[in-house]
Amino acid sequence: MNNTVTILGCGSALPTRINYPSSQLLELRDKQFLIDCGEGCQIRMRQYAVKTNRLNHIFISHLHGDHCFGLIGLLSSFGMLDRTADMHIHAHPDLEKILRAQLDYFCEGMPYKVFFEPINPSRHELVYEDRSVEVYSIPLKHRVPCCGYLFAEKERERHIIREMIDAYQVPVREIARIKQGADFVTEDGRVIANERLTTPATPAIRYAYCSDTAYSEKIIPWIEGVDCLYHEATFDSSMLPRAKETMHSTARQAAEIARMARVRQLIIGHFSARYTNQQLLLDEARSVFEATTLAKDGGVYRIGTL
Description:
single chain; Metallo-beta-lactamase, Chain A; 2 domains; seven-stranded mixed beta sheet; 11 helices
């Protein structure tokens, strides 16, 4: 199923019986992107029968253990499974120094290569691009350099109306131009408007991941109008002083960001281990932004149709 996000872990620093630390697998335009890789990520993949045959890029938000302790185990297992495709890890430059030593010690002779793609968490910029997807960093407000990520589909081509193409005897060589919005000129010079030959393209999907972060309205211009926002909601409002101290957000604050950014859907996660009943967090967020969903380990959420 395409355009989905699978939550592999939505807890915070301390894992619980119901929530592993942060990790999720985004599927967009027939590609897979792993966002953060907390301890136990690969175990969750096995438990939820998650296939990773199209996973070639991992994006790490910051270098706190609950967001990257699962990396060495996952990369090692890929080697034992005879993976041959290159793996690219996008993260703060320090991660290469930390992880390279582990790879050299524990994973000598792996059948695939790991490439580190350094990013500057303090800047909003394009950090990855291919033919159909762009990924931008989103500077966040945390105790260490940290950034979220915006995954944006590139605009799709318009849909051909086959009956009209046949009716006007459009040559095959013209189809690509028409999909891109061009009109068609017949042999006798008539201009056939593109709107008669095509229907609008499927809207491009945008997904934003913002964890870990204190409340920050600075991110709003970068996430405005996204189809789905994942925003941390570590605490409820009664723990606001603790949230400020640790530079995390409350559920209400996450919802305020979603409301001001006019996003279509909000998923809240990164829950403190103190909450055995997370409905409290969901209720608080929904009091501000109704279109809020509570993240659950193993949950698969279709972006744009939650």
